[in-house]
Design a protein that fits this description.
By secondary structure, this protein is of the alpha+beta class. It has six helices and ten strands; from the N terminus they run αβββββαααβββββαα. A six-stranded mixed β-sheet has the order 2-10-9-4-5-6. The model is unreliable at 1-11 and 209-218 (pLDDT under 50). It comes from Sandarakinorhabdus glacialis. Keywords: Membrane, Transmembrane, Transmembrane helix. This is Membrane protein.
Length: 247
Amino acid sequence: MFFLLAGLLLGGAAPTILITDLSQGQIDINTTFKGADLLVFGAIQYPQGAVPEAPPDIAIVVRGPVQPVTVRRKERVAGIWINTDSVRFESVPGFYAVATTRPIDELADDRVTAIYEIGVANLQLSPATGASDAETEAFEQGLIAAKRSAGLFVESPEAVTVTRNVLYRARIAIPAAVPVGDYVAEIHLIRKGRVVASSTTPIVIGKSGFERWVYVAAQKHSLAYGMAAVAAALLAGWIASLVTRRA
């Protein structure tokens, strides 16, 4: 009896649990790949099945893979465009998409959204150079603008649908230019400005077929792949010269 009472006093109420699944845990890229439509869906398991009357807020983040990126500024010098200043960012996701039930600034305060990196403005890109804060901010905004333009940084407010305050779903558009690698879908349940439950689900985006063969060859046999590429270029040039001479 003592241990049961102590457990009730110390443990408190049972936690809310997020159950999540994906329409596909692996996305294959081949020569005809034009993008994919990823469905993230699941259910909210409330303690003792007590569903609240107020609708919950959900934020779904799909991101990956993280890699360093150097952003350079081009300036015209003596009539020639050349690279001048640059800033290196150590942890830039190759793809980042967030879908929410409401606009991000209505879900929680800046501290909470920054901790969970909900929203492009809250990404921790980790600048690694000694540039001033103003310069770093300018380069960061340039990087974000380029990613947005390529469809690799996306925010979709009010794109998460919640049914009967229990079932949730959202569609995340995966563009054709998405990099290969390991991804993760992060789902956060937000109540009264606090994240009360989270779940994560891995996603793999990789090449398939001939695209995969070329990718693996380039990664594992870089020297042989480079020599083959040079030989193919020389052969193509030689064939082109023959055609030109005959013409």
